Amino acid sequence: MTTPTASAAFKPKKSVALSGVTAGNTALCTVGRSGNDLHYRGYDILDIAEVCEFE
Asked: Smallest Cα–Cα separation from 23: which of 11, 35, 14?
């Protein structure tokens, strides 16, 4: 019989206590009200991810 490791057994709870609270303002990125769209310097992040290379 094996026992699960502490990291495998531990699952943190999802907190929604700060949902909707503004974390800060920036000129670099904007997030849509639904939280599903991200723009970096006015460009959709999905468009950037398709054509840019990252290290």
From this structure: 35
Residue among 41, 36, 35, 39 at smallest CA distance from 22? 35
Q: What is the DSSP letter of 27?
A: S
Which H helix or E strand runs over 40?
strand 38-40
With CA atoms as reference, report the closest residue to 44 among 33, 31, 55, 26.
31
The torsion defined by the Cα of 46, 48, 51 and 53, in degrees rounded to 10, comes to -110
Total-model pTM = 0.47
Checking if the pLDDT of 1 tops 60, the result is no
What is the 8-class DSSP label of residue 1? -
